[in-house]
Amino acid sequence: MKRVEVRLSITAVAPLLDLIKSVADELHTTLAVPLALSDADTELASVWKEDLLESQRNDCDRLFSLFDQEFFTEGVVAFDRDNAECVLRACAALRLRFRATHLVNIPDDTLEALEASSSMTGLSEAEQKAFSCFLFLDELQKIILKYLDPMAVEEDE
Question: What does pTM read for this prediction?
Answer without folding.
Answer: 0.89
